[in-house]
């Protein structure tokens, strides 16, 4: 077969003024090798090549190198003309003008065409699109390997949920146009990075106003100030309840973290260490994690004198979102450097004992957001699902499978995302927004369809907290109001409405879960 | 019904249709390469059926938009027969060195620019005149398969990579170049380290396209 092509290829080449001489230089090779292997042909070709362009660059040993590697290549299509081309251009294409020359000198079948098209036109332009392509969000490399294993098992199940029943949760619900209650919050600092509202499991709402944290008891309506405003007291930047609801952690402008016993209204301890303000806190058991403006995250063991047990450095700018997964295995953090990190709590513990200060690497890092990431929420009914929302330049909510580090879906929220709350009972997600809409939105998951929007505040909604019964959401906004919204109905038993169920519904509002 | 179907498939391809085919080919091949070479994480891609093959296209909106913006311009240049080559260069983020260079040479056969460019050159063979869309799709399928299979011999890209798309245009004065495009470096790979493999080609009645991949080999 191939031998049939050879004479025709030759004949075509002869018409080319560059090649005529060299053809006569190697007729013996050609004639004797009428049935030669392809290698023979290639050798002839590469010799042609060398003689051909000897004026420009004569590198016989280079040509040989290329030829030998060519012989090993099984992927070269078996068209003789293309073989010719590749053996030629492998040495030549490195310089652009030469490459156009090549396309001129080869190509038996379409030589005329390439001559007309590929002939060096006086000024050929190479253009590229000015903007750089969007950056890829790669997980860390060891995770890439893990992910390849897991992709088929867990990611496919995640994807499965994304596609199932898109119309299921989209039935119209009337939004709560009016809040259940509005509390005045004078001195509520209008700063996106702070987290100043939290609702405890003992049904108390903590809010930081100026330099004093206040606690509002949702059952009695009593308000209690923790401490007094003095000259040296510094602005409250974050409040967070411990999981039992007995202690309130307060992060300050000056970098101190205070622990308050709310029952006694007494400051238990002050934990110094951060050298800038602490805009976010998260508890897991007796570990209190604090994110700092300088990008560091500390784990404090609140029981021991040497409270700082770990330092995580994974952010180049202020850490403004920090959330432990309820089971304490993973910690998600978001920062003003647009990064979402996920930390494995097990990593680094043993290493730490060796030299005290270690550098812990996050389990994975995501750079998909294009603005600060403050809103983080772990899904209560799918442990590996994390939702993150970006700031005013980004306006997206991303959903991550934390086991694989894969992004399972994304949602364009159309407005700065300031906080996210998953419904504990239904497959829904609440997001609160800042510029430009100042609304709160309810989304169904996994169909990601909007159930409703509520224009909640006159200024951007900065923080939100869920009541312990999972029905009411408190939102604090720049308009110095704390509003309470009835978002979800209490969880009901669907099958039968018997007495016990009615009881449960009756008292669910104030119940402690 | 059946006759209508038959006439449709037998229809010859016009220049407009050919441009659409070539642009679509670029879209899918760029997506496929970005997926196969891991320039973007595989989670960002979803599978669609195309050319009788499962093809992966990105579901990342920003990347989708980026590619679409480029291809819209490419399509315009194809329509006016100014585009002669499209190159997808994969380069290292860290060193900015080109690691792979996917090159697609485009020849416009009946385009106004080739007409009378070289009077001495014989006319391209007119034998392929009545190629149907189906035949073209089959040829494209061949290239796509090769792109997919090229993963087996291309060196592993173990560093973080990004890509650039280069368009080679002729310098005809009527070539409109939008301000978003700029003259660029050809992104060639160092001569001593380069290895290349020519892929299949496909032709419509108007365009013929040849694909090639050049890649850097380790020392």
UniProtKB/TrEMBL annotation, chain A:
Keyword field: Cell cycle, Cell division, Mitosis, Repeat, Transferase, WD repeat
WD repeats: 229-270, 312-353, 454-495
Region feature Disordered, mapped onto this chain: 1-31, 55-95, 152-177
One GO process term, biological-process aspect: cell division
GO cellular component: anaphase-promoting complex
Protein's UniProt keywords contain Repeat: yes
Annotated GO MF terms: anaphase-promoting complex binding; transferase activity; ubiquitin ligase activator activity
Domain CDC20/Fizzy WD40, chain residue ranges per copy: 183-485
A Pfam family: WD40_CDC20-Fz
Biased composition (Polar residues): 17-29
Biased composition regions of type Low complexity, renumbered to the chain: 81-94, 153-169
Compositionally biased residues, Basic and acidic residues: 55-76
PANTHER family the UniProt entry points to: CELL DIVISION CYCLE 20 CDC20 FIZZY -RELATED (PTHR19918), FI02843P (PTHR19918:SF8)
Protein family: Belongs to the WD repeat CDC20/Fizzy family.
Descriptive protein name: Ubiquitin-protein transferase activating protein
Automatic annotation (TrEMBL), chain B:
Spans annotated as Disordered: 110-131
UniProt keyword annotations, A-Z: Cell cycle, Cell division, Mitosis, Nucleus
Compartments where located: Nucleus
Comp. bias intervals (Low complexity): 111-124
GO annotations of cellular component type: cytoplasm; kinetochore; mitotic checkpoint complex; nucleoplasm
Pfam families for this protein: HORMA
GO BP annotations, alphabetical order: cell division; mitotic spindle assembly checkpoint signaling
Superkingdom, taxonomy of origin: Eukaryota
The UniProt record lists the keyword Iron-sulfur: no
Major place of residence: nucleus
Location of the HORMA domain: 16-213
Family per record: Belongs to the MAD2 family.
Record's protein name: HORMA domain-containing protein
Organism: Apiotrichum porosum
Taxon lineage: Eukaryota, Fungi, Dikarya, Basidiomycota, Agaricomycotina
């Amino acid at each position: 077969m191939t031998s049939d092509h050879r004479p025709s290829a030759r004949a075509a080449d002869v018409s080319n003024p560059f090649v005529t001489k060299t053809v006569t230089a190697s007729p013996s090779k050609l004639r004797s090798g009428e049935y030669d292997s392809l290698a023979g042909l290639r050798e002839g070709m590469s010799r042609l090549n060398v003689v051909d362009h000897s004026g420009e660059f004569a590198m016989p040993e280079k040509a040989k190198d290329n030829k030998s590697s060519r012989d090993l290549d099984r992927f070269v299509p078996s068209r003789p003309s293309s073989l010719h081309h590749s053996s030629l251009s492998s040495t030549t294409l490195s310089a652009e003008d030469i490459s156009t020359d090549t396309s001129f000198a080869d190509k038996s079948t379409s030589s005329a065409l390439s001559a007309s098209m590929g002939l060096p036109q006086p000024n050929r332009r190479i253009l590229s699109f000015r903007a750089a392509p969007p950056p890829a969000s790669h997980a860390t490399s060891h995770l890439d390997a893990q992910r390849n294993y897991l992709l088929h098992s867990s990611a496919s199940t995640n994807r499965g949920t994304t596609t199932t029943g898109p119309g299921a949760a989209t039935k119209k619900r009337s939004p709560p146009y009016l809040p259940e209650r509005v509390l005045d919050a004078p001195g509520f600092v209008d700063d996106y990075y702070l987290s100043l509202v939290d609702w405890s499991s003992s049904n108390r709402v903590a809010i930081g106003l100026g330099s004093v944290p206040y606690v509002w008891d949702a059952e009695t309506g009593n308000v209690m100030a923790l401490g007094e405003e003095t000259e040296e007291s510094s602005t409250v930047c974050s409040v967070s309840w411990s999981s039992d609801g007995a202690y309130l952690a307060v992060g300050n402008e000056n970098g101190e973290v205070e622990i308050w016993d709310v029952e006694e209204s007494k400051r238990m301890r002050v934990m110094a260490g951060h050298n800038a303000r602490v805009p976010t806190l998260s508890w897991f058991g007796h570990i209190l994690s604090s994110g700092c403006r300088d990008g560091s995250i500390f784990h404090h063991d609140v029981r021991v004198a040497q409270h700082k047990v770990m330092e995580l450095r994974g952010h180049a700018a202020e850490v403004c979102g920090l959330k432990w997964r309820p089971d304490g295995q993973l910690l998600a953090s978001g920062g003003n450097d647009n990064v979402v990190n996920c930390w494995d709590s097990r990593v680094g513990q043993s290493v730490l004992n060796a030299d005290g200060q270690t550098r812990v690497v996050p389990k994975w890092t995501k750079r998909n957001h294009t603005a600060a990431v403050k809103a983080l929420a772990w899904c209560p009914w799918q442990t590996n699902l994390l939702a993150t929302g970006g700031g005013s330049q980004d306006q997206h909510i991303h959903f991550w499978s934390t086991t694989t580090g894969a992004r399972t879906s994304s949602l364009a929220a159309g407005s700065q995302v300031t906080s996210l709350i998953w419904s504990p009972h239904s497959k829904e997600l609440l997001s609160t927004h800042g510029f430009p809409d100042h609304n709160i939105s309810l989304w169904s998951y996994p169909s990601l369809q909007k159930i409703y929007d509520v224009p909640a505040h006159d200024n951007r909604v900065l923080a939100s907290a869920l009541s312990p019964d999972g029905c009411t959401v408190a939102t604090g906004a720049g308009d110095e109001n704390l509003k309470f919204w009835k978002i979800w109905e209490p969880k009901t038993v669907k099958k039968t409405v018997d007495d016990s169920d009615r009881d449960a519904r009756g008292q669910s509002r104030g119940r402690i879960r | 019904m059946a006759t209508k179907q038959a006439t449709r498939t037998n229809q010859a391809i016009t220049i407009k249709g050919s441009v659409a085919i070539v642009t679509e080919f670029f879209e899918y091949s760029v997506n496929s390469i970005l997926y196969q070479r891991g320039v973007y994480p595989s989670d960002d891609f979803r599978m669609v059926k195309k050319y009788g093959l499962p093809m992966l296209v990105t579901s990342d909106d920003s990347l989708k938009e980026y590619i679409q913006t480029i291809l819209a311009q490419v399509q315009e240049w194809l329509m006016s027969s100014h585009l002669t080559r499209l190159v997808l260069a994969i380069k290292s983020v860290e060193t900015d060195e080109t690691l792979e260079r996917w090159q697609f040479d485009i020849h416009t056969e009946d385009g106004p620019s080739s007409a009378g460019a070289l009077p001495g050159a014989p006319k391209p063979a007119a034998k392929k005149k009545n190629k149907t869309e189906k035949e073209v799709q089959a040829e494209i399928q061949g290239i796509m398969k090769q792109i997919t299979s090229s993963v087996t011999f291309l060196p592993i890209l173990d560093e973080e990579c990004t890509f650039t798309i280069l368009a080679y245009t002729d310098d005809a004065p009527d070539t409109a170049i939008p301000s978003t495009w700029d003259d660029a470096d050809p992104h060639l790979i160092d001569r001593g380290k380069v290895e290349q493999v020519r892929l299949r080609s496909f032709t419509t009645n108007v365009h013929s396209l040849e694909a090639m991949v050049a890649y850097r080999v380790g020392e």
